[in-house]
Design a protein that fits this description.
The complex is a heterodimer of chains A (about 220) and B (about 325). Chain A contains nine helices and five strands; from the N terminus they run H-H-H-E-E-H-E-E-E-H-H-H-H-H. In chain A, helix 7 packs across helix 9. Chain A has a domain of about 80 residues: [2Fe-2S]-binding domain (DNA polymerase, domain 1), CATH 1.10.150. Chain A has about 220 residues and is α+β, with helices and mostly antiparallel strands. In chain B, the strands form three sheets. In chain B, strands 4-5-8-6-7 form a five-stranded antiparallel sheet, with no helix packed on it. A four-stranded antiparallel sheet of chain B has the order 9-10-11-12. A three-stranded parallel sheet of chain B has the order 1-3-2, with helices on one face. The radius of gyration of chain B is 19 Å and the shape is globular. Chain B is about 30% helix and about 20% strand. Chain B starts with 7 loop residues before the first strand and ends with a helix. In chain B, helix 10 runs antiparallel to helix 11. Chain B is of the alpha+beta class and about 325 residues long. The chains are: A alpha+beta (about 220), B alpha+beta (about 325).
Amino acid sequence: MPEEKKPEDIKKKGSGNVSRRTFLKDAGFVVGAPAIGTMAVSAERASAQDKAAGGQSGAGDVTAIRTEAARTIQLTVNGDKYRFAVEPNWSLRQLIRDEIGLTSPKDWCGGLGACGSCTVIMNGRPVLSCLTLACECDGAVIETAEGIAKSGHPIIQAYIDHNAFQCGYCTPGFVCTSKALLDRNGDPTEADVRDALGGNLCRCATYQQHPPAVLQAARELKKT
Amino acid sequence: MKTIKKFTHIDARTVDEAASILRAGNARILAGGTDLLGTMRFEVLPDYPEVVVNLKSIPGLDSIKEEASMLRIGALAKLEDIAKSDLVKKSYAALAEAAHRTATPHIREMGTLAGNICQLTRCWYFRLPDNRFNCVRKGGRQCYAVRGDNRYHSIFGAVKSCFAVNPSDTAPALVALDARIKTNKRLIEAENFWDMAIPGSTVLDADEIVTEIQFPKPAPGSRSAYIKFAIRKSIDFPIVNCAASVLDGNARICLNAVYNKPYRAAAAEEFIKGKRITEESAEAAGEAAVEQARALPGDRNKWKIQIAKTMVKRALLACA
Ligand SMILES: Cc1cc2nc3c(=O)[nH]c(=O)nc-3n(C[C@@H](O)[C@@H](O)[C@H](O)COP(=O)(O)OP(=O)(O)OC[C@H]3O[C@@H](n4cnc5c(N)ncnc54)[C@H](O)[C@@H]3O)c2cc1C
Ligand code: FES
Ligand code: FES
């Protein structure tokens, strides 16, 4: 079980070219008079966020920029609560794999959004963790295939019973997508299942085995 | 997996704040991120955004509600929520079906309607990682599709020498249903919303943000439909798609993925006007729609002309 990580445990991976505050400050010079009011508010917010994050307020000062570039988020993954300082450019997949150490979100398409192997369930929706920014996941409730397996969800046994995988690489993505479907729709038709799984690719071409597996899990769930 | 290059991320609190950040410099709007983050990860564009402005932190931009005279869909409404909405399915069939046929379930769970209509072209020269083809759409000198592999490119000519097509699935539904796009500055008729821009695909100013899409309530007796042709049922972008709405012998018909922007099939509308929609009249309307269509030299994209004709026919028949 991973322990909760504190922001200070997280290694800083450099910082963006521009900090929120310096950008907003520069912006104050670039924009015309009508916008200045808004920009000033933004600048205030930026420094308030800095203070909240424990940063110093010296403009252009490197420590401040670093503090500002990373943002502290809290999220729940498979029932465990975490707190992280994340860089703006981290994907959720990166956070889950590299920081939390859960390796079920895979990568086939390289982060194009085209394969579904990085699927996780976020706030009830099946989403692509490669195209989700970690810094936007504050407060999110996330489930990965590890959590679904640990909870004893019948989808796992159904996948085994129906040999719904060969190499297994795509399986965590399929499992998350199927579970998200079953959470919303306890009585799916085969067409519903095919539709829901339309964004998950399997290079071993196990497609035919998935609908019966998901329908079996649905029947199991109804019994309980 | 390639890590996305550094940028500064700002959660906008209001549309005005987001606009003022856009005015300030090299910043981009982020809605669902399914298009934008791909272009950033693969550094498709010559200039990489310094700042990304998240709109999802602005409350209240994702509602779907019907009022006396119109359906109002917030810019951040998710495609999946639109596709599943009983309200939309009941009276705005073309939109519900278009949203449902877009991309994959995951992308529909993340992607927004505004993001869908503002997405960049999928031309493979434009999209090649690391800006390997600095084409006209990026401020370069030529359209590489002219002499290259143009099997998916425009059949209605170029706009400012660019033969790329608009790939949006929902765009033609907006045109067929006569939608209005509301921004922080104005109300734009769907038909006038798209244009070739560097590198964009809309007429929006640099600091303009879509806040809502409005659909007039269809008159009793009107019908609408949406048809998509793609290689696979899921995931694939349209090769050609078509939305139509019909009321009392008048039709609005819009094709997409055939031209730089959604293409209103005015000739087909003219032909079908006042006629009963039958197999024959729909076929003839399809023929009228592609009368002006021309394949690029080499005829590689000629197949799309036949498909466009058939899409018009099927969309009309679905409204009969
Ligand atoms: C594998 C894959 C398959 C796909 N298949 C299809 C398909 O079949 N059909 C299809 O239509 N699309 C397809 N897409 C494109 C997909 O990204 C869109 O459908 C999606 O709706 C984009 O919405 P988004 O909210 O994620 O946009 P984002 O990525 O957040 O934004 C897209 C663009 O719009 C701008 N933008 C966003 N919101 C606003 C706003 N409110 N005001 C002004 N500008 C704004 C952004 O700055 C950006 O340039 C596919 C994408 C992928 C990755
Ligand atoms: S890695 Fe392919 S969709 Fe995320
Ligand atoms: S089982 Fe091998 S990729 Fe699906």
